[in-house]
Design brief:
One of its GO terms (cellular component) is membrane. This protein has helices at residues 9-19, 25-35, 47-56, 61-64, 67-103, 110-117, 120-149, 158-174, 177-206, 219-222, 235-254, 259-263, 270-279, 281-299, 318-325, 331-363, 381-388, 402-437, 456-470, 484-508, 524-529, 540-548, and strands at residues 4-6, 447-449. By secondary structure, it is an all-alpha fold. The chain has a single domain, classed as Up-down Bundle (Amino acid/polyamine transporter I). Strands 1-2 form a two-stranded antiparallel sheet. The longest helix has 37 residues, at 67-103.
Length: 549
């Protein structure tokens, strides 16, 4: 039985227009002006681009490298449970976002939706928080790329590798969304094949199919055990704290799943392609994250000394550790090359997302209007160049170990990313209330999920994200564990979010949008004009490809 619902575009649109046809004309003109700026973004992302972006677009060093420290903190069961809990939150966020963005696939994505359904002040806050999140994670991925290259060569200064990676990422983005989408399709394909191959290889090694013919099974779940006693704290409390320590790293790995919303404004045939992309998110969660973390817990003991990310090379990857322990000599370098493309791909997505975020702010006059400038081909070149400058923060890693810098960036962006998820879910709760109060049937939307009946999934995510954020830096309060950098990088986004929201609200005197006044009409005519029925494939190969994509 399908969990989700797709509708017939034309029929749903007709019913919908009958239900909400009396929207305010002034508001319609206002939103139309903002949604379709002259010489704005162009829809050039194809269905297969969106499919691979949603499945593997931002799978990066968080999964391939960061799971090592998470395993060391939580143990195999703590690692799996942490990623499972965060996966349930991620899925709740995505089905909430999917209902809104499939209905209104507009430039600015969830940032614009917050303005329309909650409060312009929330849109301002989410927009700058989102931009800050991705413009900071860009240097994190560049630093991680330097870590990966160190496996082969430690004699050349990391500045060279960071510079090369940054130049390639900027060039890809300056060629436009179509080229970015094509590069991401192939980059993400490599990542998907890599993680799938690693999971299969992990099963083989666990079963004793490696060169050493040693069957591992659940050996490491018995010794050193399924959980780690965090910081030597005994009993159930120590085991719980070990599990909780996994959550920040798990959040960093999942953050970015929502970039499909930012790409919506440049997606071809959005009413058809976006629901398809959203529906593939569960594949990413179940197969890559939960499957990957389960296998990692079988392959590597949680007390393996190589799990410390500060070792400075990709040998800290639990997959590479397992391969070396099994006695397979050539594979670590091959896997390292795949991980390098993963970091490269994630950095490219970071620049794309941050530039579109500040572009979305500019077209709503919440950022300097210079960032809304585009070429005749729809490239926001000013936004891209400005965001690319922040890639230079990666050179900070030259003054300390790249692993430490990556850890600081991970904490910083995980908190900011979770704040974005929180804002998305708050927006959905208001969106769903507006539908009910205006008598709009949800079955007429392009995409719905039964888990969000009365916004249940969104409310679950709001509660869980709030708890995780509040306790995100709990470890620094343990005796002898105080670390100012960890405290600041975890809680800085939590301080900035309400300050920006309240500050903008007081200065601009904005008000919350009443559910009965929400505009569900403006921009629909443009979206409908750009949506169409795609002819079904006629060949066997075409049918197989369509099923995959």
């Amino acid at each position: 039985m399908s969990l989700d619902h797709e509708y017939d575009d034309k029929k749903g649109a007709d019913v919908y227009q009958q239900q909400v046809g009396g929207a305010d004309q002034i508001q319609h003109e206002q939103y139309s002006e903002e949604i379709v700026p002259q010489d704005g973004l162009k829809r050039s992302l194809k269905s297969r681009h969106l499919a691979m972006i949603s499945i593997g677009g931002v799978i990066g060093t968080g999964l391939f490298l960061g799971t090592g420290s998470a395993l060391a903190h939580g143990g195999p069961l703590g690692l799996f449970m942490g990623y499972a809990l965060m996966g349930s939150i991620c899925y709740s966020v995505m089905i909430s976002l999917g209902e809104m963005i499939s209905f209104l696939p507009i430039p600015g994505g969830h940032i614009k939706l917050a303005e329309r359904f909650v409060d312009p002040a929330l849109a301002f806050t989410m927009g700058w928080n989102y931009w800050y999140n991705w413009v900071i994670i860009l240097p994190a991925e560049l630093s991680a790329a330097a870590v990966l290259i160190n496996l082969w060569n430690k004699t050349i200064n990391n500045a060279l590798w960071i510079s090369i990676c940054l130049i390639v990422v900027v060039v890809i983005n300056l060629f436009g969304a179509g080229v970015y989408g094509e590069c991401e399709f192939w980059f993400a394909s490599i990542k998907v094949l890599t993680i799938t191959g690693l999971i299969i290889l992990g099963i083989i090694i666990t079963a004793g199919g490696g060169p050493d013919h040693k069957s591992i099974g659940f050996q490491y779940w018995r010794d050193p055990g399924p959980f780690v006693q965090y910081e030597g704290i005994s009993g159930s409390l120590g085991r719980f704290l070990g599990f909780w320590a996994v959550l920040t790293q798990a959040a960093f790995s999942y953050i970015g799943t929502e970039i499909v919303a930012i790409a919506a404004g440049e997606a071809k045939n959005p009413r058809r392609n976006l629901p398809r992309a959203i529906k593939k998110v569960y594949i990413r969660i179940l197969v890559f994250y939960l499957g990957g973390t389960f296998i990692i817990g079988l392959l590597v003991p949680s007390n393996d000394k190589g799990l410390a990310l500060n070792s400075g090379t990709a040998l800290a990857s639990p997959f590479v550790i397992a391969i070396r322990r099994a006695g397979i000599p050539a594979l670590p370098s091959i896997i390292n090359a795949c991980l390098l493309t993963s970091a490269w791909s994630a950095a490219s997505s970071d620049l794309f997302t941050s530039s579109r975020a500040i572009y979305g702010l500019a077209i709503t006059r919440q950022a300097p209007k210079i960032f809304a400038r585009t070429t005749k081909n729809g490239l926001p070149y000013v936004a891209i160049i400005f965001c690319a400058l922040f890639g230079a923060l990666a050179y900070m890693s030259l003054q300390s170990t790249a692993g430490q810098v990556f850890g600081y960036f991970a904490n910083l962006t995980a908190a900011a990313g979770l704040m974005t998820w929180w804002g998305i879910c708050v927006t959905y709760v208001r969106f769903e209330k507006g539908l009910r109060d205006q008598g709009i049937d949800k079955s007429t939307l392009p995409y719905t999920s039964f888990l969000n009946k009365k916004a249940f999934a969104a409310k679950y995510a709001i509660v869980m994200i709030s708890i995780i954020l509040f306790f995100s830096a709990w470890s620094v309060f343990l005796k002898g564990n105080w670390d100012t950098a960890t405290f600041v990088t975890n809680y800085l986004p939590l301080w900035l979010f309400p300050l920006l929201w309240v500050g903008y609200k007081l200065i601009k005197k904005t008000r919350f949008v009443r559910s009965t006044e929400m505009d569900f009409v403006s921009g629909l005519d443009v979206v409908e004009a750009e949506s169409y029925d795609e002819p079904p494939p006629t060949t066997f190969a075409g049918k197989v490809w369509a099923a995959i994509m």
